[in-house]
Inverse folding.
């Protein structure tokens, strides 16, 4: 069996890095031949914050290039990671050349509540396309329970596989950072306004705690199209204990996380987008044996056991109170971090998820081709 993973993003972004490059590497261990066709890395397309500058004609040209690449290997399964403009080439290969496709969703890239006017005309073209692709796919893979429920409305060829983390790379060291300077951390991208709102929420909690604990710090690591908005919010605090670290290369993230104390995963809006996310940064904090405080939204509630392998918080007061508990209780931080590490080792490691993906692909092959 050969798989071609198809993504519009490059290795630097977690969707492509984990669900394409890392999954491809894991599947190689089982004797599968894999290849990643990244529109960014392979074809040179802009991704991340630069993708917005592309016009429709340019996107079509990249799909034409990809289509020619995909036709070279007639027997390979086409693994479509997310639905976006890059989906055109593999779906065209499926329709025109009977190529078998796999749909992997780890994000909600549709309208929140799409409707079908007169029963057939969609308010969301993405929703319309995804449901048809799901029905024709050999296998659909959902990265969250929310996406699993969504896809189950269109297919029973479905497997839940969260994003997870490479526990060999994200591995806690014996060194414990000095608690004379306790560092809270948020790490990710700033490509959506919601992320800025989430960080602003965490900053409010931190600022109130800062009045009582002069030895705490808050670091924000990442970059994105809304960086200017974030900087304006941070500058408004006039606090040298708040820092925007900028982009950290994927291979350097474990070293960065080794020197922080507490990871934050605030999520303000309980909407389809946030419920669909598989929280990469939460897995990375946990793999590094860091205690975390997360909002009771989306996938977080399926991963965190409150006060055991992390903290869950319903509102601002509870979020701040649990941040305070971790500032004051060093032993709890260690115990919670250790249990967090055990959680990812048993349920969310790349090794575990790679095996699950291999078994799902094997079972799908045995069931036969998707209905055409």
């Amino acid at each position: 069996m050969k798989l071609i993973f198809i993504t519009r993003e490059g290795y630097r972004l977690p969707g492509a890095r984990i669900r394409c490059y890392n999954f491809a590497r894991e599947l190689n261990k089982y004797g599968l031949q894999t290849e990643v066709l990244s529109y960014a890395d392979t074809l040179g397309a802009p991704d991340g914050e630069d993708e917005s500058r592309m016009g429709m004609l340019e996107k079509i040209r990249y799909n034409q290039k990809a289509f020619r690449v995909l036709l070279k290997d007639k027997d390979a399964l086409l693994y479509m990671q997310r639905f976006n403009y890059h989906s055109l080439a593999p779906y065209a290969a499926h329709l025109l050349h009977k190529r078998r496709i796999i749909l992997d969703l780890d994000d909600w890239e549709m309208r929140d509540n799409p409707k079908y006017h007169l029963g057939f005309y969609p308010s969301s073209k993405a929703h319309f396309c995804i449901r048809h692709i799901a029905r024709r796919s050999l296998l659909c893979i959902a990265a969250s329970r929310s996406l699993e429920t969504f896809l189950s409305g269109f297919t029973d060829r479905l497997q839940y596989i969260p994003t997870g983390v490479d526990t060999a790379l994200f591995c806690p060291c014996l060194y414990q950072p000095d608690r004379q300077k306790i560092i809270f951390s948020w790490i990710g991208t700033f490509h959506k306004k919601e992320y800025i709102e989430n960080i602003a929420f965490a900053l409010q909690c931190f600022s109130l705690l800062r009045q009582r604990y002069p030895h705490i710090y808050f670091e924000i690591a990442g970059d994105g199209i809304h960086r200017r908005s974030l900087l304006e919010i941070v500058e408004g605090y006039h606090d040298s204990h708040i820092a925007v670290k900028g982009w950290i290369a994927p291979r350097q993230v474990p070293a960065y996380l080794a020197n922080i104390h507490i990871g934050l995963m605030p999520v303000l809006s309980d909407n389809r987008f946030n419920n669909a996310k598989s929280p990469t940064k939460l897995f990375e904090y946990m793999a590094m044996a860091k205690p975390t405080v997360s909002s009771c939204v989306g996938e977080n509630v399926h991963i965190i056991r409150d006060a055991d392998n992390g903290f869950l918080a319903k509102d601002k007061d509870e979020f701040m109170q649990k941040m305070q508990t971790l500032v004051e209780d060093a032993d709890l931080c260690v115990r919670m971090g250790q249990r967090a590490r055990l959680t990812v080792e048993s349920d969310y490691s790349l090794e575990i998820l790679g095996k699950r993906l291999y078994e799902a692909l094997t079972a799908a092959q045995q069931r036969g081709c998707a209905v055409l």
User: Anything to note?
Assistant: The chain has a mean pLDDT of 93. Residues 2-164+350-367 form a domain with the Rossmann fold fold (CATH 3.40.50.2000). Residues 164 and 348 are 5 Å apart (CA to CA).
